């Protein structure tokens, strides 16, 4: 059987790769959208609804980027917990978060119960 810490580390590594790739994609898209702004000035007859959609898309990308950066920060915390031997425990109640939940969310910091409570409290999702 694999060492649980090794398993956790591989899982975090895979998640880190995935998030960094996503973040780079979103950041590149935002850069493209910003580069497109000057080009759009020559298309002032463009349908206003389309312009609105583009603005909305960029806002979505911005918030997605912020969310990904938050998840990457959570991953860094998870590595620190792994080093400290406290990985996989709820930061609120100290109980094990659970293998199934850690598989789905390797950087989970709270058990399902306290994650729900935290999200209800600060309005953050994810
Ligand atoms: Zn808890």
Task: Give structural notes.
This protein is mainly α and 126 residues long. Helices cover 72% and strands 0% of the residues. The protein has one domain (4-35, 50-122): Four Helix Bundle (Hemerythrin (Met), subunit A). α1 packs antiparallel against α2.
Give the key terms.
single chain; 126 residues; mainly alpha; Four Helix Bundle (Hemerythrin (Met), subunit A); elongated; binds zinc ion
Fold topology:
Layout lengths: L3 H37 L7 H37 L14 H6 L7 H11 L4
This protein binds zinc ion.
Biggest sheet overview? none
* Computed CA radius of gyration, to the nearest angstrom: 19 Å
- CATH fold group: Four Helix Bundle (Hemerythrin (Met), subunit A)
Number of E strands: 0
Question: What is the overall number of helices?
Answer: 4
User: Which architecture does the CATH hierarchy give at level 2?
Assistant: Up-down Bundle
CATH class: Mainly Alpha
Helices and strands: which structural class?
Answer: mainly alpha
For CATH, the homologous superfamily is named as DksA, coiled-coil domain
In short:
By secondary structure, the chain is mainly alpha-helical.
